[in-house]
Amino acid sequence: MIPALMAVAAAFCAWIQWGDEIPLPKADYNKQTSKYELNVKKQDEKEKYERAVLNRNPSGYMTVEEYEALSVPKDRMKEEIEIPKIPTPADMLYVPQPSYKIVRYNNPPGSQEVSFNDTLYTNRQLNAQGIVSPDFKRLVYPSIYYYPNTGSTAADLFVINLDEAKSNKDKILTANVVHRMSEPILSTDKDNDNYYTYRTLTPVDFSTDGTRILVKEKIGNTKDGIWKTTPYVYDFTTKNSYNLQDVREAITYYWQVAKELNLDDKRWDIQPLGFSQNNPDWVVVNAVAYTGETPVNLGTWAITCYGEKPRLVSTQNSAEAISMNGYKLIKDGVEPPKILKKEEKQLKRIEKANAKQKKKEDKAELKDMKNSYKAKIKELNKEYKESQRDYNLRQKINGSTSGTEAVEKYKEIKEQQAIKRQQMLEKQKEKELRDLEKQKLKEEKQKNNEQAKSQKTGENSEGEL
Predict the structure, then answer these.
(1) H helices of 74-128, where?
(2) What is the C-alpha to C-alpha distance for residues 125 and 197, in angstroms, rounded to an integer?
(3) Is residue 232 within 8 Å of residue 246, measured between CB atoms?
(4) Could you tell me if 266 and 291 are in contact, meaning their C-beta atoms sit under 8 angstroms apart?
(5) How many angstroms separate the CA atoms of 366 and 359, rounded?
(6) Max CA-CA distance within the chain?
(7) Residues with Cβ < 8 Å from 417, sequence gap 6 or more?
(8) Which bin fits 260, alpha (ψ -120 to 50), beta or left (φ > 0)?
(9) How far apart are CA 299 and CA 254, in angstroms?
C-alpha cells in the first residue's frame, strides 16, 4: 500500500516539474456579482415587506428618518380628538346618561357670571362656561388662572372653531380645547403683585350677525368686593378689540352735573346687558350705585360697539329691548333606559360588524402586501434571468466572432428574440379573447336557460289555476 502511494506522489511531482498546471474551476466574476446584487435586492424587498407588515400596528421600532417624519409638529386645529368612552360596569344594567338641550346664553340679559369652585384652586386653572355664536361656527370661553402666591387671578378669552359637518348639539359636545386658537382674543393684566385681586373675563353675548362679541372684565378683591366692570367688544372681522370705558366716564360726568353727585366717592358699577335689539351696533349697560342697603339705579346707558358716543337711554328701569343671540348647552334630565338599551344593542351590532370588517380588510391588506412582495421578487428574478441570457449570448458571440461582426450578430439575434416575444404576446392575447368570448357565450346560454325555465314554471302554475 505504501509503495503505491509513493508512486502516485512521484508521478504528481513529475507533473509539476514539467510545468503542467493543475486545472482549477474557473468562476465567472460578472455572474457572481449579478447573483450577489440579486440577493441584496431580494433581501431589501423582504425587509420592506416585513417592516410594512409591522407598521400596520406601530411597535415603536423605527429608523431615524421615520422618527423625524413622525416628529414634525402637527396642526392642533386639524387634529382629531376621540371622545373617551366610559366603560359600563358588568353588574350595572342601566347607567343614567344626561341629556342636553341648546338654550339662549344671555337670558335674562346680563345675568352671566363666572363662578369659582375647588377646581380652580386645585388645578390653578378653570375653563368657564362658553358661548356659541348664532351661526354655530365658533365657541368662545374664558380661561381663569389662579396664582397661589398672592391669591389673585387673571383670565384669557379663547376661541374654538366648531366642526361644520356635525349637528349643532354635537358641535358643542365635541368641542375640545386642543382645537382652540393658539392666541387669546382678549386678556387681562397678568400682574399679580396685589394680594387677593381677581380679574375675570365673562362673555355677555354675540351680536346679531355673530361678527362681534361683548365681554365684561371685572376687577375686584376677595376681601373688598368688586371694584370696576369694563365692557369690551371684539370684532372677528377686523380682529380688533374696543374698550367701552367712555360709558363709565359719561355716567360719572352726568351725575356730577345733574345731581352734583360725585360717584368717585361712592361704590358703583355697571352691568353690560347686551346688544340693542333696535340698534345692533349699540351696546346697552345698566349703572347701579351701592349707597346703602338698597342699590340705587343710575340709569340705562348705551354706547356704540366701537366705544363712541355714550348716551343716556333712561334714568329709570328702562324696558330697552336687548337681543339674545348666543347659545349654550345645559343638562335637560337623563336619557330613558329603553332608549339607552336599544342604543347599546345597536352599538354592539355595529362594533361587531366593524370588527369583522376590519379583520377582513386587514386580511385583504396583508394578502395584497404579500402579493406585491412576490410580484417584486418575480420581477427581480425575471430581470436577472434576462440579464444572464443576454450576458451568455454576448459571451458566446465574442467567443466565435470579434469586432463589428459580433455587434451585428448580437443585434440580429436580439431582433429575432423580440419578434418571437411579440408573436407569443399576440398569441396570448388571442387566447384571452377566445376565452372571454367563450365565457360570454356560456353566460348568455345560462341566462337563456334560466329565462326559459322561469317561463315554463309560470305556464305550469297558470295551468294549475
Answers:
(1) 118-123
(2) 16
(3) no
(4) yes
(5) 10
(6) 147
(7) none
(8) left
(9) 11
Tens place of pLDDT per residue across the chain (465 aa): 455 545 545 544 544 443 444 344 445 788 888 889 889 999 999 999 988 888 787 666 777 887 888 788 877 777 776 766 666 555 556 677 788 899 999 888 888 888 888 888 888 898 988 999 999 999 999 999 999 888 899 999 999 999 888 888 888 988 888 888 889 999 998 887 778 888 999 999 999 999 999 999 999 888 888 889 999 999 999 999 999 999 999 999 998 888 888 888 888 999 999 999 888 899 999 999 887 778 888 889 999 999 899 999 888 766 678 899 999 998 888 877 777 777 777 878 888 888 899 999 999 999 999 999 999 999 999 888 888 888 887 777 776 666 677 777 777 777 887 888 888 888 888 888 888 888 888 888 888 888 887 777 766 655 554
- All cell numbers assigned to 302: 348705551
The DSSP code sequence of 390-430 is HHHHHHHHHHH--THHHHHHHHHHHHHHHHHHHHHHHHHHH
**E strand spans, 151-281:** 152-161, 186-187, 197-206, 212-221, 225-235, 240-243, 268-275
Report residue 266 as a C-alpha cell.
361712592
Which residue type does 198 have?
Y
Ramachandran angles phi, psi of 75, nearest 5°: -80, 115
Burial of 372 (0-12, 13-18, 19+ CB in 10 A): middle
Beta strands in 14-137 (DSSP E): 98-104, 125-127, 131-132
The residue extents of the domains of the chain are: 98-262+323-334, 336-374
How far is it, in rounded angstroms, from Cα 205 to Cα 104? 10
Per the CB < 8 A criterion, the answer to whether 214 and 233 are in contact is yes
Amino acid identity for residue 53 in this structure? V
Rounded CA separation 165/93 (Å) = 33
Decide: residue 289, CB within 10 A, 0-12 exposed, 13-18 middle, 19+ buried: middle
Which amino acid appears at position 433 of this protein? L
- Tell me how far apart the alpha carbons of residues 203 and 144 are, in angstroms, rounded to a whole number: 13
Cα distances (Å, whole numbers) of residue 193 to 148, 154, 189, 217, 224: 12, 12, 11, 19, 16
Question: In 10 A of CB 403, how many CB atoms?
Answer: 7
Q: Say how far residue 413 (Cα) sits from the centre of its chain.
A: 60
**Cα angle 194, 200, 205; round to 5:** 160
